[in-house]
Amino acid sequence: MEAYDVNELFARCDASGSYDIDKIKRAYHLAEDLHRGQKRISGEDYIIHPIAVAQIVYECQLDTNSICAAFLHDTVEDCPDRITLAEIRTQFGKDVADIVDGVTKLNIPFETKQEASIRNLRKMFLAMSKDLRVIFVKLADRLHNMRTLSVRTPEKQRSIALETMHVYAPIAHRLGIQRIKQELETLALSYLDPIGFQEIRKDTDKRYGESKDFLAEATRKVAESLNAYGIRYKLEGRVKSIYSIYKKMYNQNKSFDEIYDFYALRILVDTELDCYTVLGVIHEMFNSMPGRFKDYISTPKQNLYRSLHTTVIGSEGIPFEVQIRTWEMHAVAEYGLAAHWKYKSGEQANQALDEKLQWIRALLETDADGSDPDEFLHSLKIDLFEDEIFVFTPKGDVVSLPAGSTPIDFAYAIHSAVGNKMVGAKLNGNIVPIDTVLQTGQIVEVLTNPNSKGPSRDWLSFVRSSEARSKIKMFFKREMRTENIEFGKQAIDRELRRYGHRYTDQQRDQIMANLALRMGYAEGDDLYNSIGFGGMEIVKLGTKLREEFNRLVVPEQEPKAKAPALKTENSEREDRKARKSSESVIVDNVEGCAVKFAKCCSPLPGDRIIGFITKGYGISIHKYDCINVQNGLKRPEDRDRWVTASWTIRAEKRAFGGFEAYLNVYATYTPSVIAEISIALRDMKVEITSFSTKENDDVIIMTVGVRCNDTDHLASIIGSLKKLQAVRDVTRGNA
């Protein structure tokens, strides 16, 4: 555990002269009082955590209100004697209360696409767009939790590490906070792949130990040359981080020995002019590697990162990277937008900060309807995870776009009107198809026609940026409502015809009116319009659409019910089976849907599953890796019939007394082997539902249907059967 000294923090804040030390002390003493008696899982006093978060926030060079919020961030929900936000606002002001409120609400389970999780992500970005300090404190909170993750259970370690790698590290990268990003990635990797982590750390220590004199010698030579030129500088050497090496080895399929930028020198100077002067000195001293120079000063990254990068070859033939930047650039590289509070102030600075937050607002505008969680996740992944490219306008202005972007993405990055009137494009003076993938350094010219009727719906299938997708959809939403409604009706008709019952236009419109109310639309035409312009996919209506159809159409078409027949034992068993199936699976976020489990793969709780809308009755539930699923997802005509599915908590808690699964048992034939298998299953209290055999020379192959609770239970059964002397192997099978 790291030691955090709150008095040392007070002293550093006081010495800087930039902080309201009395306010910070009041926040700490209040937090200490509210957390008194609380312990962390490690057994240490809980107040250690707020102190650590405040320390990290201070190291990020944030302001007084951020440090106060760091001390108080767990007091609203996690204290026995909780304080209200109104009380915090009264004692510390609106900013501190708003930051605490924002951090308190951010709980982001990212491993699922459930709508509640997406709402939390939206909430986080909304809080970020209002006050970035919310996410800085949250990142500091997560960083300390990762530093102390060793005391949690292995399951919790993996879950938190995944969430960190999927959400928090990319956000830190997008905000330019490289110091936190790199530590989060390294810590997360140590729990997600501990063997790979240890192997790379061992190789890194070995290589550095064998050639650390090389880095010292390169540093000495560079220092001598810079001194000769009279340049004021700071020079430091480093080795590549474990996660960076791991990622390069994994993504590019390289061995450890093929990592050439293992070593790096960083040179900090006073001015941009000094940066380019130092670059010249470096290239004069060492041979540069072709294609390994990047100028992020004239063309900054989207996360504000600015620096010169060049890779050169040392005297021993060892390549190393040199990074050259000013002190302010370095502060931004280390702390990203957090450096705003140290280096900028006044109205102009706030305006500049607003411009830097534009990508967050664009993401929220993309999700203005809030109707499609997958669409929001798609945009989020593009904005957070994708690499970027830099292209130029004919006038030489730089435009940053996600990797994989097309001229259409470029046009909408310039202006909505340019994209809407686009009819063609030129790259470096040559006319190209509008779906051509752009590369860094190209000059892009958009060809427009004032008489153009607007974008094509097909553009949505290949544009890359969330901004372009949002603006194209907005065009169709605003300008083509009548056409969208008609397009939506045609799409719904195609879906309803699959249900096998006749219906009238009036019934269809009533179904959609009911669905619109359930989903937050003002009227049915608004839902038709959303389908028409691409804001809502029909597959997302799935279960709700069928429910309304069955309620309004099917009862009117069915013949009058006959007197109920006496229920047999078999029919009662089938009823119970259908009821248990519907209670065990959530389809499109709706519980209680009519489902059946596919015999081709016999899914169990613990398996990743997906649903298929059958042409007969109900939804067929498959394992996601079922061969029929993999083939079916490739057929365009069936694409809208696949729906999301997941197990209910009750199913995962084994509340139903068993699901049907199948085993293939391979055994040496003996007269008693079948009896031995049956007795072993009886002793495990496992119900046998079917049994068939096939002989092949001296081997007997038994396909056994059994009742089990989930994948873990089935694995236990398989393990026990494998211990029988005659059994050669046992595998999971199908009916």
Report on the structure:
There is one protein chain. With about 725 residues, the protein is α+β, with helices and mostly antiparallel strands. Helices cover about 50% and strands about 15% of the residues. The strands form five sheets. The protein has a six-stranded mixed β-sheet with strand order 12-11-16-14-15-13. It has a five-stranded mixed β-sheet with strand order 1-2-5-4-3. A four-stranded antiparallel β-sheet has the order 18-19-17-20, covered by helices on one side. Strand 6 (about 390) and strand 7 (about 400) form a beta hairpin. Helix 2 (about 20-35) runs parallel beside helix 4 (about 65-70), helix 3 packs antiparallel against helix 4 and helix 4 (about 65-70) crosses helix 6 (about 95-105). It is globular. Mean pLDDT is about 80; it is low at about 110-120, about 340-355, about 365-370, about 380-385 and about 555-575.
